[in-house]
Amino acid sequence: MKFTYPKHEKLKSRTLIDQLFSEGKSVTKYPLRLVYAQVGELNDSKIKIGVSVSKKHFKKAVDRNYYKRVLRETYRLNKDVLLGNLEQSYAFMIMYQTKDRLTYQEINEKTIQLFEKFQKDIQNK
Description:
Keywords: Endonuclease, Hydrolase, Nuclease, RNA-binding, tRNA processing. It catalyses: Endonucleolytic cleavage of RNA, removing 5'-extranucleotides from tRNA precursor. By secondary structure, the chain is α+β, with helices and mostly antiparallel strands. 42% of the residues lie in helices and 22% in strands. It has a single domain (7-119), classed as Ribosomal Protein S5, domain 2. Helix 2 packs across helix 3 (104-123). The two termini are 27 Å apart.
């Protein structure tokens, strides 16, 4: 598997984002939250993913951008866990929801646990 985060996997569509937050379900592994929604056929990939860090918790853009970069990197390196057995197309949003300044290693561990929790959640349905 290629460990890339190509342009066609980035969640940019306003309609998909609105659908994600109106119809989506979520899985949480403190301090991360994964909101997901099954979407119709995507033309170029099985998933679309976006990341978000709250301005409420990190006032400086430098800090928000750092955590968004870390979230994208942990996704890129661990997306094989997320894509494990997906038959349907999904839209995802990963959110960092705390003031705590975790290290890269801690965020990476939490991301893996979050993706595994998502896999269990969709298998149970």
